[in-house]
Amino acid sequence: MTPDPLMTETTPDKRLQRLVNVVQELSLARNLETVTRIVRTAARELTGADGATFVLRDKDKCFYVDEDAISPLWKGSRFPIETCVSGWTMLNRRSVIIPDIYKDDRIPAEAYRPTFVKSLVMVPIRTMNPIGAIGNYWARYHHATEDEAQILQSLADITAVTLENVQIYSELEERVKHRTAELEIANKQLEAFSYSVSHDLRSPLAGIQGLVQVLQEEYGVLLDKDGKELTDLIEQSVKNMAHLIDNLLVFFTTSKKELRSVEVLMKEMAIEYFNLLRKQEPPERSFEFSISNLPHAYVDVALIKQVWLNLLGNAIKYSRKKAKTVIEVGFLETPADIVYFVKDKGSGFEMAQYDKLFSAFQRLHSDQEFEGNGIGLSLVERIIARYKGRVWAEGVPEEGAAFYFSLPRTLV
Description:
Blueprint: H1 12-27, H2 32-47, E1 51-58, E2 61-69, E3 78-80, H3 85-92, E4 96-98, H4 109-112, E5 119-125, E6 132-138, H5 146-219, H6 225-253, E7 261-264, H7 266-278, E8 286-291, E9 297-300, H8 301-317, E10 324-333, E11 337-344, H9 354-357, H10 376-386, E12 391-396, E13 400-408
Parallel strand pairs: 8-10
Antiparallel strand pairs: 1-2, 1-6, 2-3, 4-5, 5-6, 7-9, 10-11, 11-13, 12-13
Helix pairs in contact: 1-2, 1-5, 2-5, 5-6, 7-8, 8-10
């Protein structure tokens, strides 16, 4: 018989190094196929055997899952656990060394006659409640040494841990898939709900708005001061509700929107929306606005517009109680990102309440102090997250706030 390339002398040092390499390979294994491929080859190399087999217990059967040998053995076959030597190893929870398979009554000799096997060693995969076995075979009569049996047992022990990890990984992966599927369903339901809210609530709001206008036009002269204040309050509430519906729709659909990135002139956009927001304020209000020469960015125009509108709008709103509204827009650079910021000298906030800042519907100020619905900053965070950037803030009560958002340099 021609010697097999794997039938080489292996020193203890080489065996140990090979075992270390196997441990590293198995640490990356995530499925049974990978484990069996690594183990079958390693089992043969560690002892210079002519063949190796990987067996798993399948209830009352021994399932020969895989093999690496000079000629076919029993890959894919199942045998009653009481009739095979791998079964004996599992049932007795210990290794077995058999120099001559035809002189040992634990071996079903007839099953071995068609094969090349003359000698073998078999070790259990896990000695406590074995889940399988690893076998080495020789085409010549070979009395395996205790060292060979021990190195094979060490491989089996490592394999047992790996198989347990694979099972845990598989269960976790299945849970993630299940949770992901649930989340997708929930998102679809939420999206459907948001569209429903958008359409179903707009009609009655438009009706209320129309009735208020009729009341003001037809019966305005009959209303006293309190009556006019009430109609104005109704009209403002309708506008607030319409604004909330718009924000909800944008918030719920942002993550689904297809990104259409183009080069955006960030400085020009920030100036445009600052001027737009300023026109909505009383003409006598005093402003001091400064802006750096902001780097351009390749982003979705509609989405980045929401970022600037919310950050600049907040700076204007929360500076309302100051004699002068001071706003600064600028940028910082890091090795990985460009960081844009909007700073003001308004009411600021307590850093102890920071956790609420970017949570939807969470507000740090009452409606009596400042109007709002608590969606804006959550929307900003969601938009920037789509570009793998981040949003954060700093604030000091009554001294002002600074809001930052980063974009990767690849987008700038």
